[in-house]
Amino acid sequence: MIILIQCKDRVGLVAAISGLMAQKNINIVSMREFVDIEAKQFFARLVCEQNRDPEILLSDLHLVLPENALIKINPEPEKKIILFVTKEYHCLGDILVRHHFKTLGAQVQCVIGNHDVLADICGRFGVPFFLITHEGKSKEKFESELLAAIKKYPNDYLVLAKFMRILSPAFVELFPMQIVNIHHSFLPAFAGARPYMQAYKRGVKIIGATAHFVTNDLDEGPIIEQQIIPVDHTYNITDMISAGKEIEKAVLAKALKMLFEDRVFVYNNKTIVFD
Amino acid sequence: MIILIQCKDRVGLVAAISGLMAQKNINIVSMREFVDIEAKQFFARLVCEQNRDPEILLSDLHLVLPENALIKINPEPEKKIILFVTKEYHCLGDILVRHHFKTLGAQVQCVIGNHDVLADICGRFGVPFFLITHEGKSKEKFESELLAAIKKYPNDYLVLAKFMRILSPAFVELFPMQIVNIHHSFLPAFAGARPYMQAYKRGVKIIGATAHFVTNDLDEGPIIEQQIIPVDHTYNITDMISAGKEIEKAVLAKALKMLFEDRVFVYNNKTIVFD
Amino acid sequence: MIILIQCKDRVGLVAAISGLMAQKNINIVSMREFVDIEAKQFFARLVCEQNRDPEILLSDLHLVLPENALIKINPEPEKKIILFVTKEYHCLGDILVRHHFKTLGAQVQCVIGNHDVLADICGRFGVPFFLITHEGKSKEKFESELLAAIKKYPNDYLVLAKFMRILSPAFVELFPMQIVNIHHSFLPAFAGARPYMQAYKRGVKIIGATAHFVTNDLDEGPIIEQQIIPVDHTYNITDMISAGKEIEKAVLAKALKMLFEDRVFVYNNKTIVFD
Amino acid sequence: MIILIQCKDRVGLVAAISGLMAQKNINIVSMREFVDIEAKQFFARLVCEQNRDPEILLSDLHLVLPENALIKINPEPEKKIILFVTKEYHCLGDILVRHHFKTLGAQVQCVIGNHDVLADICGRFGVPFFLITHEGKSKEKFESELLAAIKKYPNDYLVLAKFMRILSPAFVELFPMQIVNIHHSFLPAFAGARPYMQAYKRGVKIIGATAHFVTNDLDEGPIIEQQIIPVDHTYNITDMISAGKEIEKAVLAKALKMLFEDRVFVYNNKTIVFD
């Protein structure tokens, strides 16, 4: 049994929670807990040995926790996800293989692409692929078609696995902290077009990737995972892009694993990841 | 206030601890807790906002915890340590600089060397250096001289900062989980003499370092920290040794930081590190 | 045009090679060169802009290089490989996806498994799978069946992508420096059975993987690539194995990329990798 | 004997260089060579076994290389450097220890600080320290005092080892590619004040450091070295700054090693590092 709790911090919270567990004879196998002292916010993830009626436990927990506490008991163990792609296969391929062997921790409901080049591999894994081109359409029209496709399937998360279109604020608002994106990251950051070309011209020595939630608040939402790989002067642009894809694949895989195992909390535009 | 607890696991431990804290109106700022399920052993590290009389709190905690619980309240914030060295300066220099600027988290009481080449730098930092040569002596005689020097100073830990002598089981038994060592590590491991030569001949692509407690149980005690750096075919032996020193310095620094901040527990020949 | 050269070292080798290129008006785009001073062995990899008749260039190169120089001009750009697997999919899946999108740098001729669980995914990518069970057979019989399957396809390399059988010296001798293996690596190394259990019990802080050629000379042949990932006390055995698979996948992918781009030389049981 | 060459690329350069070496019976122990194809620029670093009269070799090399080739033969093996510091000791301490044990590859001529807190440690290592405060002075006055101090010593490089003042374009122009700086780097980059506070608020998962030459062309000159360390939500600002210092120390050390061993070339605002 997994229990997730987020609420205002106050003295005695851990006691209240674990006292209730003890009283109900539930053994806590692992408990990760974090207090954001500035934000006075409390976060906990419990793994317990025994299962109990979640509705009763939920109301009991609410009795001992501050008002408006967010509590999830036994969140869906197999998330349902929809993937958005364009032409690049590296993230999609990795996800599909894990999905196929049932180690993704989520079920890929379908894949939506604004190009058709990835339809073939989806078909090979028996995953529905929908081509929804953005060409010759307004963004409203394009996104309304995306929404129509999304609605056919239950979903917990939309994963932008190298989806090269920017979603409108109106679209993003429909899926708060439910859209995950992966993109390259450089030191220093390069605004504007062709960031790899800029990074190459600048002679960067590392290339990174960031997996994050998509929000409208900032140019980039809460960061879930970041990693880098070293590069050097012998890398031409093609090599840098190739290296970038490897790290994007690894970072998205790690972020999704954390997310699907319910290890990620979000507060004040940043994440707590109990990895 | 820092509280460290290690005891047999049972239902309700976290509740018992945090309940007591709540009752005493002590706010838990952070709590790291881990249960080794196989070993049925419970470990916790609490940081609390308020200070309370440690003796009273200790006896109160014993009342709510299993028999034989190991409890430390406010462990000495500034550990007292004695360094053992031979000729290599890289770990010693790093520790002395941190010591000098009071960011080591420990006070270096003295340095004991079986060679005198490092006496000079100790003097520059005002740290006593004792030359105790092993030459022309039995190991018993050598170690009895070490012990005599050690006894002049209070100490929490002996840090072997590239001390190239093997300590006898009798010596090691006097300082259980109080001796920390750093050494190079390779994949695969190379037994026998001149491990760097073996690693070079074998063409390893990474060189690692391991910081560990010294015990007599195994060829190597509980591991506190391990890191590696990549190397390649252009590294000759000198380059590999040089790279190895950089990683040894970093790994020992990290291990000592964990240790001096009371983040390390030991059980069944392995460590729990709440980093 | 790619040119690979390995020979005894002597004064003037680079001049001899590049002089010939200049004389033939071939521009050297990149030249990686390494001398193993101890072994007095010279290695070079040249990428040139122009293509020339390889037979003429080969004989011209032999004229200016020491006797018995090993020279390859324009090695097959698309290697032909045969994969050996057992039950674990993580390396196979990654290779098949790259193969499918033609970014592997090699053509997977077929997959041979001693279990059938991976037949399905091979079928999905249109790659022939042969089940050759080892059960109820002598090693000779088993390997003769492997050889019969191998012979149906041209091949440059056999890739053991988590193949859990040990190949006999007689088999290995048939494919000198043509068999690549991937396995986990720990610090310290754990001999004997169930290495992950040993690593877990020992509380290792990093888990590595090594890709290497398979030879009979040593317990492990020349290392092509090694990388690690950090783990901690919260990892149980399942977590450690899962982390190990991620790093095995990444290390094998990097090793194969180096190999298929003709960046790997072998000498005296170690590799020179011009990455 | 070390030889550094930078010139326009053309067919036959390697042949010309190595041919001359062969003719003079000089054995090339290692040769690193790189062509920036876009920039049509050639870079080489040779290590040779024999020493020859550098003046004769220089003029001979000029005969076989394109006009305006930059050639250095046996660059000063022990660079002379001047360190600029403010209050933070981590980079300075590391450099002074290496200097003391003669493994820095450079002689620290003196240290200039705009605060006096680091005077003590310089004194302990017998390195002259000059306090030149910026307070109550125009930047012109401040920098003229810096220049007066610099002029007392020969120097190859000025190393800004956490010097917290921005140097004027006029000052920077006096030392082209001779000023090295170290600073933290984040993904994404944070402009404006208090970058660690911004990184903390943003929940970054890695903290990096960049060592680079100081130029006036861009907000940041050619990058020599970059590395990162992982952080997580449990890091408060103090922890992040502390982690940042460790990585700054390591990155500056690596960059200086490359520089002092004459492994760094600069062209078009980026570096070629033959590491």
Low-confidence stretches of chain A: none
- The CATH class of the largest domain in chain A turns out to be Alpha Beta
Biggest interface pair, counts: A-D, 37 and 37 residues
By DSSP (H or I, 4+ residues per run), the number of helices of chain A equals 8
CATH topology name of the largest domain in chain A: Rossmann fold
Kindly list the characteristics that best describe this protein.
homotetramer, 275 residues, alpha/beta, Alpha-Beta Plaits, Rossmann fold, 2 domains, 7-stranded mixed β-sheet, 4-stranded antiparallel β-sheet, 8 helices, 32% helix
Can you characterise this structure?
The structure is a homotetramer of 275-residue chains. Chain A has 275 residues and is an alpha/beta fold. Chain A is built from eight helices and 13 strands. In chain A, the strands form three sheets. Chain A has a seven-stranded mixed β-sheet with strand order 7-6-5-8-9-10-11, with helices on both faces. In chain A, helix 3 (90-100) runs parallel beside helix 8 (237-260). The interface between A and D is large, with 37 and 37 residues.
